[in-house]
Amino acid sequence: MRPFRYERPATAARAVAAAGGEAHFLAGGTTMVDLMKLDVMRPERLLDITQLEDGRYDFIDWDGKSLRIGALTAMATLADDDEVRRRVPMLSDALWLAASPQIRKAARIGGNVLQRTRCAYFRDTSYAQCNKREPGSGCAALDGGVTRGHAVLGTSSACIATYPGDFAQSLIALDAVVEILGKDGPRAVRFAELHRQPHSRPDIETTLEEGDLIVAFSIPDADFPRSRYLKVRDRESYAYALASTAGALRMDGDVVADIRIALGGVATVPWRAREAEEMLKGSSISEDGLERAAEAAFAGASTTEDNAYKVDLGKRTMVRTFLELARMEG
Ligand SMILES: Cc1cc2nc3c(=O)[nH]c(=O)nc-3n(C[C@H](O)[C@H](O)[C@H](O)COP(=O)(O)OP(=O)(O)OC[C@H]3O[C@@H](n4cnc5c(N)ncnc54)[C@H](O)[C@@H]3O)c2cc1C
Ligand code: SF4
User: Fold this and answer.
1) Is 7 a residue whose pLDDT tops 70?
2) In this model, does residue 329 exceed pLDDT 80?
3) Three-class DSSP labels, 24-36
4) Whose CA is closest to 105, among 83, 60, 73?
């Protein structure tokens, strides 16, 4: 690992002022230190934000039906929170099914949503071609690489790397808002606008500006007891999603009053399936209807020989999620 300077800013404002260039925030370090060891990330200064003294950044606050969560809340703390599990199980499911107990204890939810792709060619610097790591160098995955884990939605001719996280799917489904402290002060952006599809610049992964610190996530309408996160993977623990669905449902009698669908493991960014939602709103839940909506959700898929199976797997995962939700009370 290359040498770096470790700093511990006392306040969020000082952390933001110090960040930028080769000075990066450090939360749990489970992405950052991992990628530093691989020489993929090369910060010169790490700004530890876990001990800020100017307020609490690890909180879970309900106000009526709205939920606000501090960005430095540990994954395990949120996963285990009784009220969150009862009122919006998809949030805790997504965290419970992610990583390992040790990682969930160290990692924070702000760092979690900013984790980087697991594309093997991005993580291994012996491959010269990676537009995400070295803009303009090409893409080893598309140039004859193994692409079984790669994305089928939101891809470009420059990059097909999958967004690997689980929790972000629940946030995008719930219309979460990201609260940011930047060099020009505080602002808020829709979670759906945080991640950028690769287009011609896969190295620019988010809409954050230099020095932006995520301080919290707020969800104005978080009461979704009939919600879940279903994750399909190669083995039952400690594995990333091959396909997943964050689903939430509100029924008015037999009719769908509100439905939220987000897909993971299949796209380059957290992926909201809005067209499928519109098809299902106002009707009753049926297997046929769900299959048609899943077809629409994957209509724009672009596949390789290795990852074509994800289209069928993704559709089935979505259908199963909602058949199970339809059977739940609530
Ligand atoms: C072996 C392994 C298995 C894993 N499996 C899964 C899995 O199945 N599902 C899953 O979802 N994840 C998985 N992960 C990823 C893991 O969940 C993330 O590494 C973790 O959540 C990142 O959080 P962190 O606090 O450690 O972030 P850090 O590593 O500290 O930071 C990550 C990035 O975010 C930036 N950052 C951190 N906090 C902020 C903030 N508040 N504002 C602005 N920028 C910030 C940092 O500068 C850095 O660029 C796995 C990781 C490992 C190592
Ligand atoms: S898919 Fe993206 S991350 Fe992977 S090698 Fe290609 S450019 Fe790099």
Assistant:
1) yes
2) no
3) EEECCCCCHHHHH
4) 73
Which residue from 147, 280, 160, 170 is spatially nearest to 231, judged by alpha carbons?
Answer: 170
Q: Comparing C-alpha atoms, which of 54, 48, 45 is closest to residue 12?
A: 54
Q: Which ligand is nearest to the CA of 216?
A: 1
At position 53, the amino acid (one-letter code) is E
The confidence band for 328, taking pLDDT boundaries of 50, 70 and 90, is confident
Give the mean model confidence (pLDDT) for residues 308-317.
Answer: 98
The answer to whether residue 330 scores a pLDDT higher than 70 is: no
State the average pLDDT over residues 182-196.
98
What average pLDDT score do residues 91-95 get?
97
Compute the distance from residue 223 Cα to the ligand 1 centre, in Å. Answer: 26
CB 88 within 8 A of CB 174: yes
Predicted confidence (pLDDT) at residue 314 exceeds the cutoff of 70 = yes
d(CA 330, CA 88): 12
Token pair 């919600």 in the structure block, residue? 227
Mutate-to-test residue for ligand 1 from 6, 8, 16, 32, highest number of ligand atoms within 8 A of CB: 32
Q: List 139's β-bridge partners, or say none.
A: 130
Task: Identify the DSSP state of 78.
Answer: H
All structural domains of the chain with their residue ranges = 5-52, 230-324
What's the fold here for domain 230-324?
Enolase-like; domain 1 (3.30.390)
User: 5-52 and 230-324: same fold?
Assistant: no
The identity of residue 301, as a single letter, is: A
Index of the ligand 2 atom closest to the CA of residue 160: 1
- The CATH class that applies to domain 5-52 reads alpha beta
161 Cα to the center of ligand 2, angstroms: 5
